[in-house]
Amino acid sequence: MALNASVEQIQQLELKLLQSDLTAHPGLIDELLAENFEEIDSHGVIHTRDEVIGWLLCKDKNIQWIFKDFRIKPLTGDMVLAIYSLHKPDRVNDAGSIRTSIWQYRENRWKMVFHQASRKN
């Protein structure tokens, strides 16, 4: 079954993960991250779902991240790839990082199954 994901819909899900106070709304974690989620950070280190959740719970909740050039590419009928660059507000002219996430439609919602960060030079 082919699903239509909009760029805005997937970007809002990415923002919800980054900018929500997940300590106040812990249910969002299970809503947004798949059980088999993995991440590769900008140093090439693979992180488990639990490690990423630990970071999400401790992150600075006041940072309003800036997304640039956000786009998605369909991979399968129920999976999309999000590609964008991410910047901190005080470093908009910085190189930032390139981010990719794979989102899969499961349990009647989009869930992130994979994320990778790559530094820009």
From TrEMBL:
Domain of life: Bacteria
InterPro entries: DUF4440 (IPR027843), NTF2-like_dom_sf (IPR032710)
Residue ranges constituting the DUF4440 domain according to the UniProt record: 10-112
Pfam families associated with the record: DUF4440
Name of the protein this chain belongs to: DUF4440 domain-containing protein
Lineage: Bacteria, Pseudomonadati, Pseudomonadota, Betaproteobacteria, Nitrosomonadales
